[in-house]
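[job 4471] stage=fold_predict status=RUNNING
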Amino acid sequence: MKNILLQLVVCPLCQGKLTAESFHDAESSEIESGVIRCACGTSYAIIGGIPRLLPPVLQGMLWEMHPEFFHSYRARLPKELLPAEVMLPEKSSGDFATKAQLDTARSFGYEWQAFSEMLPDYESNFRWYFERFAPDSFKGKRILDAGCGTGRHTYHMAQSGAGEVVAMDFSQAIEVAARNNSENQNTHFVQADIYHPPFPPDSFDFVYSLGVLHHLPDPEKGFRTLLPLLRAGGYMNIYLYWNLEGEPAWRRAALSVVTSLRRVTTKMPHALLKKLSWLIAAGFQVAFVLPARAFAHFERTRSLADRVPLGHYRKYSFRVLYTDQFDRFSAPIENRYSRADVERWFKQEYLNDIVILGDAGWRASGQRPAGHQTGESEEAVPISTPA
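[job 4471] inference complete, writing structure tokens
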């Protein structure tokens, strides 16, 4: 963790100022292992150079991920961070939403470690997600990647000329993101919860969350929580699954079958599901993707390529299709939306310049207006820009 990150983050519970203690070289500009403290009495671990700014009720999963850290630094850690002090939510009276979040974190933590490589396809995929924005839109700006996964979009955003990119993820995928972005010096990595983001209001010029919100117990709450982090004039860009409203009956029937299968696959061991996902992806590749690729090759049949189920995967490698099938069948929570639903999200928060693009889901963006308080925050508190 770069020391300068302390100028950007606050306590996710009380929004208080944080201080950090390194367990190694206190004079270094980066902290590999240590602890972060807030005046409210809450503490957070720094593990593997990444601050773990999770609410206390969610910190138990760190013990599963990094038992060696808690064993090695037991004598130096605050009592409330030690495994013996707090019971994991699923073994206590924790609420359903918290348990669902933990299941989701484990699912995506496994997924993004199993599918951790950076593929050439991801550059064109990045451009697709940000289609409405000019290439120089992000130059010099401070940007939040809310739910960064492997950091593939973080990487291309950092390469686009952004001043700073802060990548945040709830799961162990944050470690994969940090590795995949080791060459980008303008990036920071934080393990945190979208419902409790460790940033003050008005922190970012641009916030995006791609393929994340629809996996939350309350996606709209996640959207509203992120909005106050935007400065006036800044843009929010999200991607949500569509519900196939208005699509042919056979497509909606196919989605119903997938939804039914998910009741089984989301409970399967991840290693077994990974093998099953490869078989499903291989079947889709032969039945749909290869024909769509053939149609696209000839001018007379080119218009048919996009009508083929999963035809958009003709633009990507098999690995992308494989990864997406695992994602589809493993995520514990999946919500889907109509265009009207997405438009309502943006309009009820009074965002301007709203653009909603379709094609395999909704890519939606809007600008935070000046003089109107969005989301759930009561007061906007600007932060200082790092030197």
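[job 4471] summary: The chain has three domains: 3-93, 121-243+339-367, 267-330.
[job 4471] exit 0
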